[in-house]
Write a structure and sequence with these properties.
It contains 11 helices and 9 strands. By secondary structure, it is α/β, with parallel strands linked by helices. It binds S-adenosylmethionine and iron/sulfur cluster.
């Protein structure tokens, strides 16, 4: 299949293991084993991704990347990639490893600073411990060029929390390399309305093939919403990325998608279960996906009016 390297976003899941079981995340019910990627495969992924002129966006799909013992070696292979962490394994020792690596951006998924809401989102997490570890890391990284993002999750349960509340809690005035970013809770698992997210109407990505997601076991899917691997397009353990992208599987799946035939596309069926979108709406979504992050934030805020 023809693709434009600029449009495709790539993820490598170093591990599908996690220390938490968050309420909004598919990880607790993952229909794949919890495992680490073998380092040989990380090295192959690097050759294949960079060989095709692609850049890696994140070192995760599901799982907690800071649990990966060779996290610093993986960062050295992909210095352009960012890391998102739940922050609860960000010890001084792990922090030192990160700061000695070429990592440019670390996102800490705090999500809620309401001690009653936090454990509902971040099941298994200890709020006080997270605040303490985050504050210590901010101090450890003070003056370092790494960009630190403290994530705030927008959902019905967090409507009363503001960016300013987060800034105050973490004393961000003192740390010029840190800022608060907002993310909207999405239907990663089931496309029904919950306390955390609304329902969607069709393909949120705006296009069938926008992503290359390499799971810890080497299998590859075409969509970052496909956490369970229901729509695998190939296997990096036995194939090259070119073979996977140019293979007949992706072409066949795209043809089914174009006809809105979801009989063999269970993940797409979930996205479309509340009605399919019009071609015009797909165009709007593709346009939003192509926007820079700051502009996407504005769109998110408009959409999130529904939580109020
Ligand atoms: C799947 S986690 C993996 C990395 C790491 N374990 C973490 O929590 O940051 C990546 C990001 O997905 C976010 N996430 C999980 N479920 C989500 C959902 N339903 N909607 C939006 N973001 C979600 C998390 O908050 C986190 O920032
Ligand atoms: S959001 Fe991150 S920390 Fe929470 S269960 Fe999912 S992978 Fe683990």
């Amino acid at each position: 299949m023809k693709f434009s390297p600029r449009r495709i976003k790539v993820l490598v899941e170093l591990t599908s293991k996690c220390n938490l079981r968050c309420g909004m995340c598919p990880l607790p019910v993952l229909r794949r084993p919890y495992e680490d990627m073998e380092f040989d495969l990380v090295e192959k992924a690097e050759r294949e991704i960079h060989g095709l002129g692609l850049k890696l966006k994140w070192l995760h799909e599901m799982g907690e990347p800071l649990l990966y013992s060779r996290i610093d070696d993986a960062i050295r292979l992909f210095p352009e990639a960012s890391i998102s962490t739940n922050g609860l394994v960000l010890t001084e020792e792990v922090g030192a490893k990160l700061l000695a690596s070429p990592l440019k951006r670390l996102r800490i998924s705090v999500d809620s600073i309401n001690p009653k809401v936090y454990p509902q989102l971040r099941t298994g997490g200890d709020f006080d411990k997270l605040v303490d570890m985050t504050m210590k890391f901010l101090e450890q990284a003070k003056g370092h060029p790494i960009r630190i993002e403290i994530q705030k999750m927008r959902s019905r349960m967090t409507v009363d929390e503001t960016v300013e509340d987060f800034r105050k809690l973490f004393h961000l005035k003192q740390y010029r390399n840190a800022r608060v970013i907002e993310r909207t809770c999405e239907a990663f698992d089931v496309n029904d309305e919950t306390d955390l997210h609304g329902k969607f109407y069709g393909c949120v990505q705006g296009a069938f093939f926008n992503w290359i997601v390499i799971f810890a076991d080497g299998r590859v899917t075409h969509c970052c919403y496909d956490a369970h691997g229901d729509q695998v397009i190939g296997d990096l353990k036995t194939q090259s990325l070119t073979e996977i992208i140019e293979g007949s599987k992706l072409v066949q799946m795209q043809a089914l998608f174009d006809k809105r035939d979801f009989s063999e596309l269970p993940r797409c069926a979930e996205c479309f279960k509340h009605g399919g979108e019009s071609a015009a709406w797909t165009g709007v979504l593709s346009g939003v996906q192509a926007l820079p992050e700051a502009a996407k934030d504005v769109v998110r805020k408009v959409l999130d009016v529904r939580y109020r």
